[in-house]
TrEMBL record, chains A, B:
It comes from Oceanobacillus jordanicus. Belongs to the class-II pyridoxal-phosphate-dependent aminotransferase family. Histidinol-phosphate aminotransferase subfamily. Residues 26-345 form the Aminotransferase class I/classII large domain. This is Histidinol-phosphate aminotransferase. Pfam families: Aminotran_1_2. Keywords: Amino-acid biosynthesis, Aminotransferase, Histidine biosynthesis, Pyridoxal phosphate, Transferase.
Length: 352, 352
């Protein structure tokens, strides 16, 4: 506390990201990073850019990158916004579309950054309880006062919501923005991007941190109708002209060209996910149906917190949220096959 | 305009950065970039980091980089905040220390992003007219209601304010934060950082974009007492956990070690600045006393706008602000000796 702090500084309750222990030998299954490196073409593009023009500002509009993303999704460049990770894109979206006099809605179990943004920007919110099976009750999101936001697939539950549900939610909120946070969509079935042309109130947010193996580069983006995108651009241009540095722009452009590389890698993660789920089931775990690069699971006898602590002691980091309804679940990122085998080696010690 | 925009989106008036024409052969003297490349050690550090761990999130605290900056300034790590360019650090500072019910003050001729931030965050402001000679009238900054911000040296005037003036302004605003935006300080005499230990309300903001030749990398930082820094950290951690990517952190760390390289480069820019000023004086220009890597100048007969337009036609970009009091001035970045010779070659055509 300080007498110099603004009301916003006093009011906010900062987000706490997953532990970033950089001890050698640790197995990091706690922040949903991809265990595989980005395409070699990304590294080459960054190296080339580093040797060239770092003394000059980046493009404030990053038009070339926007064009590439637009082409991949059958959209126009004016329907794409890019930012410094999807967290920044989310922050700008809260500023651009939500207001302090209108209550927004999100699930009670969801990305825990949403209430943090809401408090920072003084936006009232109500949380909608997920159903018993942790699925999203769509009707509860109809006729919101100020807007709706949820991840799809949801985090940390890993559960995917079908697009016809999302379509209904958008139709039932015709005057509010409905934000679909698709951080994990490449590990799931279809993206809501195809609804963007029909629903001018749907904003889809994606990231390169997970499926593109670029958590260290900080690139996220939003897709939506031109009015929504120009709203985001107004906020960004009132905040920081150049949110993406030259290296991030160059690396991101290269990643979007390496489609075969990333398709193979995503398949690999999904294959590992499937055998991991079977192996967990065999050991008395219940696993929620995952369409992400992580799984959310609970064991029939060992408490989740104990699992988290004991795995940590043996050098394996997973994520435990000490929160109502999910206090007996852990979130485990899908690593390489080898890392998962080491996980099971340790789990077998703990369970026996 | 869109019915989905928030009040903030409707209210804001985005900043317009200098033109980023990427035509080959153009001479860019319009955005105060450094004409020289960063230290080769910076490029090597980035290349090394790019080949290593881009799939993992960066350090959310960037402690190692903060420690290095702290050591350079004789401060503790807890007195340093780092961000995605000094523009982001400024935006966070407006959020962290200024409030919608208290009027802040900045000069009428100054960095034109300040009113943009103020409008975005709904912070009332009053502008203090610079004196006839474009210097800052210190008494006018005493007893502000909500806080004070100004660049030192000021931009676009290039004029440096002595530290005893700043000390008085800080002493006369004991309950408000006084932000000194030192984007150009390495081309000037002493930084206000040495006041930070004595004045808990002084926040100094610096950037790597100018004197470190890293405009393309987006790294800025703030120096102040621990309470101010923890206020900034609260805001940042409520906005985006990882504002600096791995490459920016690695490059910035390397740059702060290459002290000899950057000392030589800064001397070179200052030497070019001095002969440029003399050469302009000889041609009927009046040049304000510059302690920056740019000069602010007016010609006795040729209108500033005409100078800007005619130089642009010949492939030389300078900056022209069509604003009261400075509508007959242009801002010219100090380029290489060769670039400045080409500038004079063109100026001689225009003036003759």
């Amino acid at each position: 506390m300080s007498r110099f702090w603004s009301k916003a500084t006093l009011r906010c309750e900062p987000y706490v990201p997953g532990e970033q222990l950089n001890q050698p030998g640790i197995i990091k299954l706690n922040t949903n990073e991809n265990p595989y490196p980005p395409s070699p073409a990304v590294v080459r593009a960054i190296e080339k850019e580093a040797a060239n023009s770092l003394n000059l500002y980046p493009s404030p509009t990053a038009d070339q990158l926007k064009k590439r993303i637009a082409d991949l999704h059958g959209l126009k460049k004016e329907q794409v916004f890019v930012g410094n990770g999807s967290d920044e894109v989310l922050a700008f979206s809260f500023m651009a579309f939500f207001d302090p006099d209108k209550t927004i809605r999100f699930p009670d179990i969801s990305y825990s950054f949403y209430p943090v943004y809401a408090r920072l920007f003084n936006i009232p919110f109500e949380t909608v309880p997920l159903q018993e099976d942790f699925t999203i009750p769509k009707e509860a999101f109809f006729q919101s006062q100020g807007g709706v936001i949820f991840p799809n697939p949801n985090a940390p539950t890993s559960i995917y919501l079908e697009l016809d549900f999302i379509e209904e939610i958008a139709a039932q909120n015709p005057h509010q923005v409905v934000i679909i946070d698709e951080a994990y969509i490449d590990f799931a079935s279809e993206s809501a991007v195809r609804l963007v042309q029909d629903y001018e109130n749907i904003l889809v947010i994606q990231t390169m941190s997970k499926s593109k193996s670029l958590a260290g580069l900080r690139v996220g983006y939003a897709l939506g109708n031109e009015d929504l995108i120009s709203g985001l651009t107004r906020i960004k241009d009132s905040f920081n002209s150049y949110t993406l540095d030259r290296l991030a722009i160059a690396g991101a452009e290269a990643a979007f060209q390496a489609t075969d590389y990333y398709a193979d890698m995503t398949e690999k993660v999904k294959t590992t996910r499937e055998w991991t789920i079977s192996a967990l089931n065999q050991r008395g775990f219940t696993v929620l149906p995952s369409q992400t690069n992580f799984i959310f699971t609970t064991h029939e006898t060992i408490p989740a917190e104990e699992l988290y602590e004991r795995l940590k002691e043996s050098g394996i980091l997973i994520r435990y949220f000490n929160k109502p309804r999910i206090e007996n679940y852990v979130r485990i990122t899908i690593g390489t096959d080898e890392e998962m085998q080491q996980l099971f080696h340790q789990l077998d010690q703990i369970i026996k």
